[in-house]
Design a protein that fits this description.
single chain; alpha/beta; Rossmann fold; 8-stranded mixed sheet; 4-stranded mixed sheet; 16 helices
Length: about 350
């Protein structure tokens, strides 16, 4: 076994609990940082990982509620950043006064712009791009279920990268190293787009989205827009751990809709089952936040900069943002596919 690492996990949601918990169970010293209310609950109730039908309890890990409190437990070898993208700005404001003492960050967040934001605060030598493709469920606070093991991607740009990959693999996380960080992050973005914003807007599960030929065409159009934006930036599509993203891109670009629809319907069914996607969960949780701006919104924003038309991603981002902020009633397009599709220019 590799030498134990001292790890700070910033954010004890599904990804933070799964990654940090797996590392803790394999002998690494892990500290979890959460907001005060959540930290208090976790101190009292602890963490549980459900893997392969077995529940494993994580004991002995410190749980902190601020950057200052966390750094008192250090120094750390690495910080695993496992926040929603809409929480990045607030987290970096807390980190900024402690930037000298803060460890390198392995950024496992969705989206393609968080690493740049972290770099502005900590500098390029303290940022490692990463991604998680394993499917996780979160039945309750401090409890995470591994629904499908795929893996973790880690960019090779940092001296710590190989050591982290070795530790992750020994902990059963199935890590894979990637030389092209942008390709890794953008390829993950492609998978995040599928039946995500549309599911939230229409209040329909992915299976129903794909069963509707017109909505399926909408899904393919958003992927083609994202692929065009990637191509304009010379960013290739790469396969991720347990996730054949190149096949997805080929299907979106090249196959007739009648052929690709049953193939992708089966793939989405295997990946998500009956579970609603993250945008739907965030919208109906009432928290008033969504990552759509960091996914569809980024495709539309960069597309505009590059003079690439992205009407589908723009419509999805704007509509879901308005639903999330309360500018539009939640039932505006609930189960009203035809009404929503009429909004396309």
């Amino acid at each position: 076994m590799s030498a134990p690492l001292k790890i700070l996990v910033y954010g004890a949601g599904a990804i933070g609990t799964y990654v940090g918990g797996s590392l803790a169970l394999n002998g690494h010293e892990v500290t979890f940082q959460e907001i005060p209310q959540a930290a208090e609950y976790l101190r009292e109730n602890g963490f549980r990982l459900n893997i392969d039908g077995q529940t494993k309890t994580i004991i002995g890990s410190s749980i902190t509620a601020s950057v200052k409190e966390s750094l008192e437990q250090g120094p750390f070898d690495v910080c695993v950043f496992a926040l929603k993208s809409y929480d990045t700005e607030a987290a970096l404001k807390q980190i900024a006064p402690h930037s000298t003492d803060f460890p390198p960050i392995l950024c496992l967040q969705n989206g393609v712009e968080n690493e740049a934001a972290i770099t502005e605060v900590l500098g390029p030598d303290k940022v490692i791009a990463g991604t998680v493709t394993s499917a996780l469920g979160k039945p309750g606070p401090g409890e995470v279920t591994l629904e499908r093991l795929r893996g973790v991607g880690i960019a090779t740009n940092h001296p710590l990268s190989r050591k982290l990959a070795e530790a992750f693999n020994e902990a059963g996380l199935n890590a894979q190293l990637f030389r092209n960080a942008a390709a890794m992050k953008w390829s993950k973005l492609l998978t995040n787009l599928l039946a995500n914003a549309s599911s939230a807007i229409l209040d329909m599960p992915p299976g129903e989205i794909f069963a509707n030929p017109s909505l399926y065409k909408l899904e393919i159009m958003q992927l083609r827009e994202a692929l065009a934006v990637m191509r304009a930036q010379n960013i290739p599509v790469v396969d991720l751990p347990g996730t054949p993203v190149r096949a997805l891109a080929f299907a979106a670009r090249s196959l007739p809709l009648g052929i690709s629809r049953p193939l992708l319907t089966r793939a989405v069914g295997r990946g998500r089952g009956a579970k609603m996607p993250s945008f739907h969960i965030d919208l109906h949780s009432g928290r008033g936040k969504s990552e759509v701006g960091w996914l569809n919104g980024v495709v539309a924003g960069i597309g505009k900069e590059l003079s690439i038309k992205t009407p589908v991603n723009q419509l999805l981002a704007e509509t879901l943002s308005q639903l999330t902020s309360g500018q539009m009633p939640l039932d505006k397009y609930q189960h009203k596919a035809k009404d929503f599709l009429r909004q396309l220019p």
